[in-house]
Write a structure and sequence with these properties.
mainly alpha, 2 helices
Amino acid sequence: MKNKITLNDGQEVSIESIHSDIMHMRDTYKNKINQILAKYDSSWIDNEHDVDPVKMSDEDYKIYNELFEIRSNIKHIASKLCVLL
C-alpha cells in the first residue's frame, strides 16, 4: 500500500502526516465551535445535539452552522484518509 504521495509542487509527504494535519484542523474548528457554545450554555460543549438555536444570536448561530459544516467536511475527508493508512 502506498504510504506517501507527491504533491503538485513535487514535495513528497506521508499520508499519515496529511491525516494528522487534517485532524489538527478538525480540532481547531471544534474549539471554535465550543467557544461559541460556551457563551450560551456549558452543557452544549461537545454536545451539539442539545444546542437550542433560539437562545443564540443570529450572527453566532450563522457562524456556528458554518463551522459545524466545515468540521463535518473535515471529518469526512479524515475518514477517507483512514482507509489509506
